[in-house]
Automatic annotation (TrEMBL):
<dbReference type="InterPro" id="IPR052189">
    <property type="entry name" value="L-asp_N-monooxygenase_NS-form"/>
</dbReference>
<dbReference type="InterPro" id="IPR036188">
    <property type="entry name" value="FAD/NAD-bd_sf"/>
</dbReference>
<dbReference type="InterPro" id="IPR038732">
    <property type="entry name" value="HpyO/CreE_NAD-binding"/>
</dbReference>
<feature type="domain" description="FAD-dependent urate hydroxylase HpyO/Asp monooxygenase CreE-like FAD/NAD(P)-binding">
    <location>
        <begin position="8"/>
        <end position="181"/>
    </location>
</feature>
<protein>
    <recommendedName>
        <fullName>FAD-dependent urate hydroxylase HpyO/Asp monooxygenase CreE-like FAD/NAD(P)-binding domain-containing protein</fullName>
    </recommendedName>
</protein>
<dbReference type="Pfam" id="PF13454">
    <property type="entry name" value="NAD_binding_9"/>
</dbReference>
Length: 617
């Protein structure tokens, strides 16, 4: 018999790592946290940050100051990069670079950052709260009574002489799915997937090697015109590319460049009330959207003249998030899916920008008049081999069909958001067993509860499962109005990791009776008492504390507070005291994950800002 509960986290990219860190921080009782990863090189990195797929020139999509893994400690990443990181082996210009909040940072160092932060969390965990790293792929999951069984296919290095991978089963009390993006093969390129001139995965080790080997004068077509396409073209230009590069996409959307000292901010705007009216048809709805959008942009421009014009759309998109769930309710399901399909790239580009480091080199190449970078707006119908060994890219534009002959075609991400189409053995198994349900309203990701629990087709939550990251895209859209990349990027993952880790710890620390009692009682009168408020403030600090000594001190303070409370009854039984803790913890988690404020505002609001930040306006 196991002596302590076990949680298995499937996937050790950002989402899995961030959740493991939170579990190590939050658990007060013995716990085994198994962090399972099918690709050794992706551990503590995932596809977005692993070293071999990210040359030094690939910088974060967003500013370095927004890459902290801790929402309540916005400067953590920049502080780490400037003062803690081991820079031996770093390439110029980064080896003696001073990182600033609004500036760039190379993606590949995120792996070191996460590695350091999980090591710290491990060291600072309570006794018998332990992290176990296992390499292997979860291929199926069974729920049996009060535990789950995960079948794990061992890593290729463990295979026998015939390449057959052994499988083993691990039992767990809770399983967290943090499997990241699912890839979609491009239908237009089926003939050339294995062609030497077709680079399908520009973020893979092989893809980067092939990109770097492209001759300077070669003609290149890049599929896509937003952030990852910019990564590829910037990489080519930085190594002196002189041949023509075509960037092709249906919408022609390009990333906006953030102004130099850009900071994230939230403005309050009136609700776009006409969008709450019944949906008639797409044209009529889009006309209302346009009118409301222009009015909102005008309001920001006149009422906040200090806000740079370049980020007005970002402020409006953020301010609208709380209203969007009500707007979305009006839109019939089929229409909603169509609108997301058609506009999600544009929405993302209104909401997020890119740093100058990435965009300036591309824009310079476009403006230099040498014609080295050209944008093409159109749908790629087909990529076919030409007899010359090159590739023909057939693009249907508004008024013609154009064939671009290329020496190389780089195909950036194609993400499969419809989980009925993904080909991962684990997801196919979960769907077949009805342990998860495709998201009905958006067709993106799966149905999920507010605490991150997947729902069966009947709506019943699978209590011992949680999900974090991109599979929650549809839910983020309809529940929180988070659209575009914001439905599943770092910002969303940070919040998911807090909510899921707190939920798992609560679940494992309360027995079944305790959970039943919790549903009947408590929480109703929370926040009405001073003692409760004080307790929540201490709990927020405890959850945010990275050192065990600080957590122990805050824990003792919390216990003292709850015992001395007049309106919170002194715990007469162990169970009562646990239930009160749960109510306090839930309120603290809600505050830590409040997305209506920026991380910096959040710190001040929670009373955890340092002196320098407290004076920050
Ligand atoms: C190229 C790229 C660049 C990006 N840059 C940024 C950026 O600069 N800033 C930002 O905020 N966001 C960025 N993003 C968005 C990005 O998706 C998130 O920031 C984040 O990395 C996603 O983390 P994740 O853990 O959900 O997914 P991943 O990082 O993909 O991790 C999932 C992990 O699960 C593993 N896995 C999957 N299935 C199994 C299984 N069955 N068994 C075991 N292991 C499994 C995978 O191997 C993988 O390592 C970028 C995305 C991409 C693709």
């Amino acid at each position: 018999m196991r002596r302590r509960p076990r949680v298995i986290i499937v996937g050790a990219g950002l989402a899995g790592t961030a959740t493991a860190i939170r579990l190590l921080q939050f658990a007060r009782e013995p716990l085994e946290i198994v962090l399972l990863e099918r690709r050794h090189d992706y551990r503590y990195a995932g596809v977005a940050y692993h070293r071999d797929g990210n040359p030094w020139d690939h910088v974060f999509n967003i500013q370095a100051g927004r890459m902290s893994a801790f929402r309540e400690d916005v400067n953590d990443f920049v502080r780490w990069a400037n003062h803690e990181a081991d820079r031996s082996g770093w390439s110029a210009p980064w080896s003696d670079f001073t990182f600033v909040e609004s500036g760039p940072a190379p993606r590949r160092i995120y792996h070191d950052y996460l590695t350091d932060r999980i090591a710290e969390a491990r060291l600072e965990a309570y006794p018998d709260v332990e992290l176990v790293e296992i390499d292997g792929e979860a291929v199926s999951l069974d729920i049996s009574g009060d535990h789950a069984e995960v079948s794990i296919r061992q890593s290729p290095s463990d295979g026998d002489a015939d390449g057959v991978m052994p499988t083993r089963t691990l039992t767990a009390d809770h399983v967290i799915l943090a499997t990241g993006m699912e890839l979609k093969e491009p239908a237009f390129a089926t003939e050339v997937l294995d062609h030497d001139a077709f680079i399908r995965h520009p973020y893979s080790t092989d893809g980067v090697r092939r990109l770097l080997a492209i001759p300077a004068g070669a003609s290149v077509v890049i599929v896509g015109t937003v952030l990852s396409a910019y990564d590829s073209v910037a990489l080519l230009l930085r190594q002196g590319h002189t041949g023509t590069v075509h960037l092709v996409s249906k919408s022609g959307t390009r990333p906006r460049t953030y102004p130099e000292h850009h900071e994230h901010g939230v403005v309050r705007l009136p609700a776009p009330t006409t969008l709450f009216e019944p949906y008639q048809d797409r044209t009529e709805f889009l006309a209302r959207v346009q009118a409301e959008w222009e009015a909102a942009c005008d309001a920001v421009t006149t009422e906040h003249p200090d806000i740079d014009r370049l980020i007005v759309t970002e402020r409006v998109a953020k301010a609208w998030e709380p209203y969007l769930p009500r707007v979305i309710e009006q839109i019939p399901t089929g229409e909603l899916r169509q609108l997301l399909q058609e506009f999600s790239t544009q929405i993302a580009s209104l909401r997020v920008g890119a740093v100058l480091y990435t965009t300036s080199i591309v824009e310079h190449a476009m403006e230099s008049g040498q014609g080295s970078v050209e944008f093409v707006v159109g749908r790629i119908d087909k990529v076919a081999p030409a007899t010359s060994g090159q590739l023909d890219v057939v693009v249907v534009t508004e008024d013609a069909t154009r064939v671009i002959r290329a020496d190389f075609v780089v195909c950036n991400f194609g993400r499969e958001f419809d989980y009925t189409h993904v080909d991962s053995p684990l997801w196919m198994d979960l769907l077949a067993k009805k342990l998860v349900t495709p998201h009905e309203r958006t067709g993106r990701g799966i149905e999920i509860s507010s605490s991150g629990t997947p729902l069966r087709p009947s709506g019943e939550p699978i209590e011992m499962l949680s999900a974090i990251g991109v599979m929650r895209e549809g839910d983020e859209i309809v529940r929180n109005g988070r659209t575009g990349a914001f439905a599943f990027n770092l910002a969303a993952i940070k919040n998911h990791s807090i909510v899921v880790a707190a939920h798992v710890v609560e679940r494992l620390e309360l027995d079944r009776d305790g959970r039943a009692a919790l549903h009947r009682s408590l929480t109703a009168d929370e926040a009405t008492h001073d003692e409760f408020e004080q307790a929540v403030a201490v709990e927020v600090k405890r959850l945010a504390a990275r050192s065990r000594a600080a957590r122990e001190r805050l824990d003792a303070q919390l216990v003292g507070l709850l015992r001395s409370g007049r309106r919170i009854p002194a715990a007469t039984a162990e169970q009562d005291s646990r239930l009160i803790r749960v109510a306090v913890n839930r309120a603290a988690v809600r505050r830590l994950t409040d997305i209506s404020v920026t991380p910096r505002q959040l710190r001040r609001q929670l009373g955890i800002a340092n002196d320098e930040e407290a004076g920050y306006s």
